[in-house]
Amino acid sequence: MKQGAQDSAGTTGGGIPRFPPAGGAVRVPRQPQAADVRRERDTPAADVRRERDTPAADVRRERDTPVADGARGEHTHCERPVPPPRPVVRRSSVRGQIVDALRTALVGGELRPGEVYSAPALGERFGVSATPVREAMQQLALEGAVEVVPNRGFRVVERDARELAELAEVRALIEVPVLLRLACTVPVERWAELRPLAEATVRAASSGCRATYAETDRAFHRAMLSLAGNEQLVQTAEDLHRRAQWPLVGGSGRPARAGLVADAAQHTALLDALIARETDAVQLLVREHFAAAC
């Protein structure tokens, strides 16, 4: 009995410590498992000591605590904190606005064929620096509207009636077969939805503003071709259409307002034929529309 009391106050046969550690919790050592041996063998010594000396409650709490968003699971070992990403300044919107403004100036005749324009001068005109203007002019150079003049700026390309006729021929080869196919497959109500776009071309033509008409004209053709569900077709046709709207050398061609009114009238007539399912009339009107553009 006396010996049992001594064992309970000192050590037992199992080797339990005589006095509990600070905090009152008695830790019973367990036999190391194979997984523990491998983990301790592959873990840096500093990490092994830290984990061994950490109370079990803290280990469980650290193990069960969700990792915060953006935190990494591995040890950082005094790595510097990664700063948050800086906001990216996008120039594409400014460049895109300048591209649109330059296209409008081209169609409206404000930028004349054969003339050279510098990026700083155009930038002052638009109230921006020369850099976005230069980027916009590079885009127009890729489209064939202007050409680079070293140390001077950009020259507006001089085009003649032959190039305009070639563009109209290519457009007809692409758009005519598509529109004839759509005339037999697209429901009538879908064609009727395009009525406001056709009417917009009529109003723009009546105003005599070539730039405004060019925009509504492309919108109407784009809407018709979009019914085919082929985005590559739409983009290619619109690029050709835009190039066909650039002014010719000396402003030759049909009188501005009369030509625009005639084109707009063909839009409404074509839409009427599509809604009425008159395929023969559709074919005739489509071909006449592109022939008139030559």
List keywords for this structure.
mainly alpha, 294 residues, 3 strands, three-stranded antiparallel β-sheet, 62% helix
Topology:
Blueprint: H1 2-9, H2 34-42, H3 45-53, H4 56-64, H5 92-108, E1 116-117, H6 119-126, H7 130-143, E2 146-149, E3 153-156, H8 161-185, H9 188-192, H10 195-207, H11 210-226, H12 231-244, H13 256-275, H14 279-292
Antiparallel strand pairs: 1-3, 2-3
Model description:
With 294 residues, the protein is mainly alpha-helical. The chain is 62% helix and 3% strand. It has 14 helices and 3 strands. Strands 1-3-2 form a 3-stranded antiparallel β-sheet. Strand 2 and strand 3 form a beta hairpin. Helix 5 packs across helix 11. It is elongated, with a radius of gyration of 38 Å. The N terminus is likely disordered.
